[in-house]
Amino acid sequence: MILAAASPAKIQIYPIAETFHRRHVPAHHAGPAPMADDQRAPRRGIAVSVAEALGHVGVMAVEMFELADAGCWGVNEIAPAPYSGHYTYGACATSQFEQHIRAVCGVPLGDLARAHRRGDGVNLIGDLWADGTPAGTPCCPGPRRGCTCTARRAGAGPQDGPLVLAR
Question: Torsion-angle region of residue 39: left (phi > 0), alpha (psi -120 to 50) or beta?
Fold first, then answer.
């Protein structure tokens, strides 16, 4: 879950995303996650509680995992900076990167409305894709199929960084 806090009283939350791992590395992020509203509220509450308890200003990711046998969620990681929700770049009106700068500079937070119905961030790290496309991962079939590539490599190497698909 990615949120932006301008102050404890001004917190905005991006659409909840889900992450798919390949070889223990996040290979694909998709937002919004297919989740009912009554499931979203408790997770948002957890993320806001973490940000408020830390007095955080800026973008923060709060990773959670489901304890299926216990019927609850645990916090796995807290990242107090723009994070793995690369789908926000291009899929949302204000990306997490712009939102972070707005929050720490005291500029009003931007609009989090989705600019597209869905956003997918695909990590291009090393040989992660050498064995082919992971199951469930989107590939950009071109404009005729309703998929637009809105960003290309962000990293320094030939296979580093995210590719963001907005549909």
Answer: alpha
In angstroms, the CA 33 to CA 140 distance is: 19
Question: For the segment 150-159, what is each residue's pLDDT rounded down to a tens digit?
Answer: 333 334 344 3
Check: pTM over 0.85? Answer yes or no: no
List the domains of the chain with CATH numbers: 2-166 (3.30.470.20)
List pLDDT tens digits, range 70-100. Answer: 777 889 889 998 876 667 777 788 988 899 9
Q: What angle do CA 17, 18, 22 make, to 5 degrees?
A: 140
What is the rounded CA–CA span in Å between residue 58 and residue 129? 32
Neighbours of 29 (CB within 10 A): 24
Beta strands 148-151 and 162-166 are: antiparallel
CB burial string 79-96: b at 16+ within 10 A, e below:
ebebbbbbbbbbbbebbb
Q: Is 48 exposed, middle or buried (0-12, 13-18, 19+ CB in 10 A)?
A: middle
Torsions phi, psi for 46 (to 5 deg): -65, -50
Q: Which of 23, 15, 58, 30 is nearest to 163 (CA)?
A: 30
